Amino acid sequence: MKKDVNIDIHHVTRVEGHGNIVVNAVNGDLKEVKWEIPESPRFFEAMLQGRSWREASHITSRICGICSTGHQLASLRATEDAFGVKVSRQTWLFRKLLSYGEFIQSHVLHLCFLVLPDLLGVESVIPLVDTHPEAVNIALRMKKLGNDIADVVGGRAVHPITPCVGGFTKFPEARELKTLRTKLADSMGDVKELTKLVKALAKKIPDFERDTEFISLTWDKEYPWIDGDIRSSDAGIISYKDYLKFANEFVIPESTAKWAKNKRSSYMVGALARVNNNFSQLSDSAKKLAKEFSLKPINSNPFMNNVAQLVETIHCVEDSIATIDAILKKGIEEETVNVTPRAGRGVGAVEVPRGILFHEYTYDEKGNIVSANLVIPTNQNHANIEDDMKAWVPKMIKEDTAQNEIAHNLEMLVRAYDPCISCSTHFLKVRFE
Amino acid sequence: MKKCIIVGLGNPYRMDDSVGIVAVDELKKNDLPSSVEVRDGTMDEFGLLDLMKQTEHLVIIDAISAGKEPGTIYNFDSKEIKSMPNPISLSLHTFGLAGVIEMARRMKIHSKITIVGIEPQSMEAGEELTPLISSKISELVDRIKNIAINQ
């Protein structure tokens, strides 16, 4: 049945930051679909100019409270790349563990607090306290576990203190790692319970697919988190230093955040992109879980990003234990960090919960930043979100879906990406004419 | 279980929004009974739920913008909060104190929660309290001590 559709949602709920959805259709013909970002710009790229290499990671970790570790690690890698600093295996293991803490708490919190309400048909997590207390308690326990990992390894739960260029200012003690290991092992019960809950609701995951380009890190040694080069499901692999060949940012009038494209008008980053591009390197348990949800590469349903988050969570918990075992087996050793700043360009490419993150800095000979470029995962997803809407809305109109259901489905779509909108609005150039 | 935990919230880079942190630093210099513990508020909102489980009485200190004259000191029981933000707006980054208090109520976490705060004069970028609020810290600390020890 042909009909008019007018949707104007200001501030999509249950996402971080502000985004608007606009849909207009006349007599069944789609006239307009827009995903608008009115969030205030953050100006971090400008803030970094003139700052010392010692400050960059501390400044950029303030871009976000949820993914502060990821920003910090990308920043450190960019500076180390510029100065030619190599880190020890011990540092690498500790950084991976720190990263896992962020993934565990971010993925589980997103699933329980932001996605489960959609699958259960309630407006927020608050009613779940009464109807599904186990889900709420799992989320809070895993959140605490993630915070404990950051506290032990990074010196603080939010905006870690101890990571620095070349290593750490202080390593944890062995007894602290053993306590963490016990907590991680105990958390497997929570992951299994969460899996059961999501499986029971799997039929409610919307069945929408669109052929999509997926971009993520890739590494021949293991599932990539803080190392590797860049893989596009369309265009193959390039060096992380050449990230600008894939991450082509552009500005649109309706958005204070930049958008990005590569081979198509958009691409997707995040858990689904990582799983699609690196499936064989997941742990055996993670692969088994993926198969239970019929998640195998290449899956082009953006809602399966949330199943991919669950799959990655189990991988992260298991590999956190293995990482601690590796550190303790060798014993924690003191390290001396020597850094000599130099002029040059450096790129740090890491995966954070929402997707691949790039920090690029150009330094002068004194080690002060001349220019910086930050490409945030949510930046890179904005165009893909809109392209998904453009593909899905006509289908829903054709199926005679009620307007309020179309609106709700589009909000669910945005939430499936787990966007961090205020992370993505970091720079705006203004030209006065 | 501690009889009382005092926690200060705030942003150390937004002038009077740091009042919770400053008050906690001052409290740590005072002699307090062993049943009262003072904690740094470097945590997210969900960390407050953890604290509530550890004590009979949680005292939260923060800047409170309630429309009265800057420097006005407030204290109220969380049960006096009559409404909370629209629950459908809750995200991971803006869950808010009222959302956490509502969660605690539904989770049947029974600790008493008292909120103590002060009307800020300025929350612009800066690392110092305004002179007005700085002059009120002593009075604020005395109010907090009285509530923590006697209520």
Name its key features.
heterodimer; A: 433 residues; alpha+beta; 3-stranded antiparallel beta sheet; 46% helix; disordered C terminus; B: 151 residues; alpha/beta; 5-stranded mixed beta sheet; 5 helices
Structure description:
The complex is a heterodimer of chains A (433) and B (151). Chain A has 13 helices and 13 strands. Chain A has 433 residues and is an alpha+beta fold. In chain A, the strands form five sheets. Chain A has a three-stranded antiparallel β-sheet with strand order 1-2-3, covered by helices on one side. The longest helix of chain A has 32 residues. Chain A is globular and about 70 Å long. Chain A starts with a strand and ends in a 9-residue tail after the last helix. The C terminus of chain A is likely disordered. Chain B contains five helices and five strands, in the order βαβαββαβαα. The longest helix of chain B has 14 residues. The model of chain B has no long low-confidence stretch (mean pLDDT 87). The chains are: A alpha+beta (433), B alpha/beta (151). The interface between A and B is medium-sized, with 30 and 20 residues.
Topology overview:
The complex is a heterodimer of chains A (433) and B (151).
Chain A: E1 5-9, E2 20-26, E3 29-36, H1 44-48, H2 56-61, H3 68-83, H4 89-120, H5 126-131, H6 133-154, E4 163-164, E5 167-168, H7 174-200, E6 215-218, E7 229-232, E8 236-238, E9 248-250, E10 259-261, H8 271-278, H9 284-292, H10 304-330, E11 344-352, E12 355-363, E13 369-375, H11 377-398, H12 403-416, H13 421-424
Antiparallel strand pairs in A: 1-2, 2-3, 4-5, 6-7, 7-8, 9-10, 11-12, 12-13
Helix pairs in contact in A: 3-4, 4-6, 4-10, 6-7, 7-10, 8-10, 9-10, 11-12
Chain B: E1 2-8, H1 19-27, E2 36-40, H2 45-53, E3 55-63, E4 73-77, H3 96-106, E5 112-118, H4 131-135, H5 137-150
Parallel strand pairs in B: 1-2, 1-3, 3-5
Antiparallel strand pairs in B: 4-5
